[in-house]
Amino acid sequence: MTTYFSGRAAALISVSLALTLGLTACSAADGTDTAADPGAALSHIHGLGLRGDTLYIATHQGIHTPDADGRPMPVGDRRDDFMGFTVAPDGTFLASGHPAPGAAGPSDLGLVASADAGITWREKSLAGEVDFHALDTASDSTVYGYDSANGLLRASPDGVTWEDRASLRALDIAVSPTAPGTVLATTESGVARSTDGGRTFAPGAGRVLAYLSWGAPDALFGVDTDGVLFRGTAGGTVWTRVSTVPGGAPQALTVVDARRLLVATQDGVYESRDAGARFERRVAVTTGKEGH
Asked: How far apart are CA 22 and CA 60, in angstroms?
């Protein structure tokens, strides 16, 4: 007998699968060597960011940026699997994940940082201890990281000294740009909300999303596992459908401001400059086995 699911049940199953993949994905090479083939299409995108007006893409094979023809070009020499990635307000790159196959060092990167847009990196903390699958920064410089292996949110005032916060099963996090203690997390039961710096979360409720990003006070967006884009209001308690992002299931979402969004899906990195009404493909992507 075949059983069919629809509506919220299907969404819950999709996000549950995404969460499972997010807890286990990408610790070994998948056979794609973009470092040996500059300009090849990317796969396994884990994060997106802007520094100035330059797009940076965190992948299973390091950081890439598109050239004038939209071909992804590797940045720097490190080909680590950057599972978590964010660009801090001062332009510093923060990342986590696993070292490239054959590279020296522990299997978990902890938190690493780059002050020169991914050309060189330095260890900040937790090397060999933590693989953050989601990272975000608050307006007071607090760094939040979701430790997927332990199902734990951690927070740090400086990226060096960390405090364990709430235990939860999540795929992505987003921090309010105006209230440093307000943190949202995507869970299989909906968006969970914290107002005390992630020490406690209300149960997930409402819209079931895969990824979310809060780029400005009026710029909270989320995308579900089918690539449907929603805009959040009332601190993430109300979600309104905007459009469907081209290219299938999402792999990453970064919101720059109320009109500019970047979304990685199964066939490309897409950009919108009209609050998600229309998207233009910036970079080609080859289908990977999973997003995070």
From this structure: 13
